[in-house]
Amino acid sequence: MHPSDPVTPPELWNHPAVRQALIDRDIVTVFRHYRRHTGASQTRLGALTGLAQSDISAIERGARRVTSADVLDRTATGLDVPPHLLSRTTVQARTLPGTTSHSVPTGPPSPTRVGLPAQSRHQEDAMRRRNLITGAVVLSAGMLAPTPARAANPIAPLEQVVFEPLPGRPVPPTDLAQALTQGRAAFAAARYSALGAALPHLVATAEATRDHQHVGHARDQAHADVARAYVLATELAVKQHSPVAWTTSDRALHAARASGDPHVIAAAARMAAITQRRAGQAAEAAAFLSRTALTLTNNHDKQPPAATLDAAVILLLTAGYSAAVAGQRTSALALLDEADETLRRIARTPRPGGDGLLFAHGATPAEAAMYRISSYTALGTPDDGIPYARRIKPSTLPTPERAARYLTDTGRMWARIGDAPRTYAALRAIERTAPEELQRPALRSLTTDLLHSQHNLAGIRAFANRHGAYL
């Protein structure tokens, strides 16, 4: 349990009304009951169930019905619903194009597999672990092939093994560096299923390699490589709103500090702050990032090197957006202005990909403009982001992941303005550019909002079906 997790009273699930709600799959009552008795915010409830805060709000208002078996399963697991309260009756799930039918529980599904004997469940778990060990040995070219839009949850393999790691063996540092580079390339290409399948072994290999190094620079570098692996894991977990991000970000920061490398520490601190922001602590995340950026640049007697200024820009941009999420307009704009000023101090053309192993993006004018768009949307003045949106052509952005990020930011901007056709156009552009992005809970939510809007958007229902929106 993370310190910010709500405390669950022992009698929480004993109320007759909530027991009936579980049988009826009345998620509105379940959510309201849970928050009333634990004090959890909508943001924290979203972090526990893998939903965006806007999803929780819409569900509690009755503006959205929950019928997805995946959402019901994550609700039961995230809220620790006792298995004996869940219905064991199964119904045939509605199938989507390209999928096969399967049985799902009529009540919120239990995190265990109801109906399987204990021995069978253990055998199934062992088989899954063996498949992970043998199937995720390397990030090969075949693993990085395009995947269907309706892919399985890409973070699931890591969630299964994060507390019971796979066995790893040390490899030469150059081999590990190559694997980390391939992992970063998979993320940049928005091939999240391939990355998710490979991450458990990549992390295990990085840790085994570090444990094989005992002293000196080699040991420091091995710590840095472990941090890079966990930074990558956290980036994927954050995209999927997975609570495992708390664990992976903490491990990344611990390893980064052990390495002593300020740039690695900066990257790990950024992911820890993003995880903190997603848990409803945006103001604290902004302050942490600001302090980290200041420490990074103050460690130099003269002009910091360009790579250090790159990292500072990225931290300040992330801090600015975090302050915007917290509703701190003055602080948010001041941090974004400071990032712009630092960017101008870099006496060379910034590298589009930053370190290549540390950050998802570099310090560039386009990135600064993208953070302006998302920050103004978070502050409730999305119209202010339009001039920045017009400065950027998605085709000029360095990777599919960054192009999808821009399209996501502009899609949210147009949604907040109330322009459904342009929002839908942005989502369809993401489908062409990086289809696995549309599996993110936040974009599923945006798709669902369009589906239930009053606008006549051609093909929206088929689009929602393709990408698992909450129907």
UniProtKB/TrEMBL annotation:
Domain of life: Bacteria
Location of the region described as Disordered in the Swiss-Prot/TrEMBL record: 94-123
Gene Ontology MF terms in the entry: DNA binding
Domain HTH cro/C1-type: 31-86
Bias kind Polar residues: ranges: 94-104
Signal peptide from the UniProt entry: none
Protein name: Transcriptional regulator with XRE-family HTH domain
Species whose genome carries this gene: Streptomyces zagrosensis
Lineage: Bacteria, Bacillati, Actinomycetota, Actinomycetes, Kitasatosporales
